[in-house]
Design brief:
Layout lengths: L6 H13 L2 H8 L3 H15 L4 E2 L6 E2 L1 H25 L5 E8 L6 H12 L3 E8 L1 H9 L5 E6 L7 E13 L10 E6 L5 H10 L4 E7 L2 H9 L5 E4 L7 E3 L11 E7 L6 H25 L1
Parallel strand pairs: 3-4, 3-5, 7-8
Antiparallel strand pairs: 1-2, 5-11, 6-9, 6-10, 6-11
Helix pairs in contact: 1-2, 1-3, 1-4, 2-3, 5-9
C-alpha cells in the first residue's frame, strides 16, 4: 500500500526542530500543542521510526529525525514555491514574442510548452512574420522579444545559431531539374535577394513561379513539386526535403538566427530567453553532430 507524506505534518516537524520544542512550534504555527503533538505521532507511525528523542529534559532529533529533516525542508520549500508561483499576481501578464515563419518549427512549440509549465499564469503572444516586419515591430515596442534570420550578427542582437541556407523541394520531386529553374519565394523574404544573386552568379536561369506573402501558399506549391525554395536547414516541414542536386544549384550562404531583447531584466523574460537559447543551441549541436 502506498504511503504519502503530508506537507502540513512535515511543516510541524520542521517547526519543532527549528524552535526546539512543541510549545514554541505550536505558537509559530498558530496551532494547539496537542495538534502539533498529534501530527508528530502520526508522522512517526507512518514512517515506523522514532523521530524525536524524548528521554531528556528537552526534545532532540533521533538519527532518523535528522535524516528526515533534510527532506522535510526541501518538500515544504517546494510546496511553498509551487503555491506562490501559481497564485502570485506578480507572475501574471503577457509577453509578445516575434518569430519568422520559417523557424517556428520545430523549436518554438517546445519553448512555449516549457515556458507555460514554469509560468502558467503568464501568456506568450506569438507573432509570426518576416524578419523585416518583426524588426520594425520591435523598434516600435510592439514586440518584447524577437528572433530574426539575417546574413550576419547585427548590432544589438545575440546570435543563437548559425544555419545553412539550403534548397528545398517536394519529397522525391524533380522540379529542381527544370530549366529555367522555377522559384517559389516570399514577397518580403530576407533570403530573396541573395538567392537570386547566387543563381545569377552561377549562371543558372530562373523564373519566379510563385511570389506570395502567404507561407502556406509557398509551402503548398513546393509540396506539389511546382518549384523549389530556399530555407534554413532543419526548418523544412516533414513533407518537404533538402534537394540533393549534386552541385547543379549554387551553394547558398549561412544565416544567423539573431535574438533581440534578450538583455532585458525580469525573471519572466530571462526564463523565456534561456529556453530560446537552449532550443536553438540543441538544434545547432544536433546539426553539427550529423555533419561531423
Amino acid at each position: 500500500m502506498m504511503r504519502n507524506l503530508d506537507v502540513t505534518t512535515l511543516r510541524s516537524f520542521v517547526a519543532v526542530a527549528d524552535y526546539g520544542g512543541v510549545t514554541r512550534a505550536a505558537g509559530f504555527l498558530h496551532l494547539t500543542q496537542s495538534a502539533v503533538s498529534m501530527q508528530l505521532k502520526r508522522l512517526e507511525e507512518l514512517l515506523g521510526v522514532d523521530l524525536l528523542d524524548r528521554s531528556g529534559r528537552g526534545i532532540a532529533l533521533t538519527a532518523s529525525g535528522e535524516q528526515l529533516l533534510t527532506y522535510a525542508r526541501r518538500m515544504v520549500a517546494l510546496n511553498d514555491e509551487v503555491i506562490g508561483r501559481l497564485t502570485d499576481q506578480a507572475y501574471e501578464g503577457e509577453v509578445v514574442l516575434g518569430v519568422p515563419h520559417d523557424i517556428v518549427y520545430p523549436a518554438i512549440p517546445r519553448v512555449l510548452q516549457q515556458f507555460n509549465a514554469a509560468f502558467p499564469r503568464f501568456k506568450v503572444q506569438l507573432v509570426s512574420s518576416n524578419t523585416r516586419a518583426l524588426k520594425e515591430q520591435f523598434a516600435r515596442g510592439e514586440c518584447d522579444l524577437i528572433l530574426t534570420t539575417e546574413p550576419e550578427r547585427m548590432p544589438g542582437s545575440e546570435c543563437l545559431a548559425v544555419k545553412n541556407l539550403v534548397w528545398v523541394g517536394a519529397i522525391g520531386g524533380s522540379s529542381w531539374r527544370k530549366k529555367p529553374l522555377d522559384l517559389v519565394v516570399g514577397s518580403h523574404c530576407i533570403f530573396r535577394g541573395l538567392v537570386l544573386r547566387a543563381l545569377d552568379n552561377a549562371g543558372v536561369e530562373w523564373n519566379i513561379a510563385v511570389d506570395s506573402e502567404s507561407d502556406r501558399t509557398l509551402e503548398a506549391t513546393v509540396s506539389a513539386d511546382l518549384g523549389v525554395q530556399a530555407l534554413l536547414e532543419g526548418t523544412q516541414p516533414p513533407h518537404l526535403e533538402v534537394v540533393d542536386h549534386g552541385g547543379t544549384l549554387p551553394t547558398l550562404p549561412q544565416h544567423y538566427i539573431n535574438f533581440y531583447g534578450g538583455d532585458t531584466g525580469g525573471e519572466v523574460r530571462e526564463t523565456l530567453g534561456r529556453l530560446l537559447r537552449q532550443a536553438f543551441d540543441e538544434s545547432h549541436r544536433a546539426r553539427l553532430k550529423v555533419a561531423g
